[in-house]
Amino acid sequence: MLILAIETTGKHASAAVIDGDGNCFCAQSEGEMNHLREIITLSDTALSKAGKMKRELSHIAASVGPGSFTGIRIGVTTAKTLAQMFDIPCIGVSSLEAMAAGISCDERYKSCELIVPMINARRQQIYSGIWQNSTDLPLIKLNEDRQYMIEEMLEVLSSEHKGRVCFTGDGIDAYDDIIKAGMKDFILADKEARYQNAENVAVLAAIKAKAGEIIHYNDLFPDYMRLAEAEQRRREGTLSSRIKNLQ
Questions:
Q1: Quick one: 66 and 128 in the same domain?
Q2: pLDDT attached to residue 226
Q3: pLDDT for res 232
Q4: Per-residue confidence (pLDDT) for residue 239, from 0 to 100
Q5: Separation of alpha carbons 142 and 82, rounded Å
Q6: CB 3.0–4.6 Å: which of 23, 127, 184, 209 could bond 66 by disulfide?
């Protein structure tokens, strides 16, 4: 088994290669939102670190979202293209689940019972979910991962779950003041552990591959979790027109 994992849902693109023994080799962009220009180079760098060639790959994995709409499209398209070129299967990984898995493997956050990744969706909205912290992967998901208002997620945590929470993701960059005002027993992940990273995607992809959770490249799709703003406006405009025509 040799998996190339691609992560382009956040600000910094990254790629990682993981083998059947769990050895993982990662390359990450220093610049922001350079996904289209750098993801192939990053993939080549990760393969070079592993001492492997593209033709040796057994699977291509991609973080399918949520996150940056443009970034998701770039990552999924790149994964599908490479998988088609080498006629190998794909593995789709949730960016939220990968972020939670990364925190679960970090000794600094072992005191937390719950892990809550938060990706900023703007206007006090986040893409988020709740996972039970554990040393065993995959983690147990405790609620639906979807789009929330930040206050809604804090209310869910306060009313439905107990235990110390570790928040991670760029949602805490945007809404840390709201979190601090609404929560008591929590930790904010340090910045070096806070954001999307292909290494976490690779680890989950390896678990999925061993469990047989693979798909044909034609079946790898983005998970935006909501419509793009332009599409929302188009639909709202269409609905308004229909209402006016009925009046």
A1: no
A2: 78
A3: 46
A4: 47
A5: 34
A6: 127
Neighbours of 197 (CB within 10 A): 23
Which tokens belong to 134? 């554990």
Q: What pLDDT sits at residue 192?
A: 94
What is the model's pTM?
Answer: 0.90
Per the listing, tokens 């922001």 go with 32
The Cα-based distances of 234 to 72, 83, 167, 228 in angstroms read 21, 34, 34, 10
pLDDT of residue 247: 58
Q: Are residues 116 and 180 in the same domain?
A: yes
Residue 114 belongs to domain spanning: 97-194
Same domain, 135 and 223: no
Q: What is the 3-state secondary structure (H, E, C) of the chain?
A: CEEEEEECCCCCCEEEEEECCCCEEEEECCCCCCHHHHHHHHHHHHHHHHCCCHHHCCEEEEEEECCCHHHHHHHHHHHHHHHHHHCCCEEEEEHHHHHHHHHHCCHHHCCCCEEEEEEEEECCEEEECCEECCCCCCCEECCCCEEEEHHHHHHHHHHHCCCCEEEECCHHHHHHHHHHHHCCCEEECCHHHHCCCHHHHHHHHHHHHHCCCCECHHHCCCCCCCCCHHHHHHHHHHHHHHHHHHC
Query: 47 with 61, same domain?
Result: yes
Instruction: Give the pLDDT of residue 234.
Output: 52
Structure tokens at 114: 């719950």
- CATH at 84: 3.30.420.40
| Token pair belonging to 204 | 């989950």
Quickly count: other Cβ atoms within 10 Å of residue 245's Cβ: 7
For the chain, first and last CA: distance in Å? Answer: 62
Say how many domains are in the chain. Answer: 2
Other residues' Cβ atoms within 10 Å of the Cβ of residue 112: 21
Tokens of 97: 């689940």
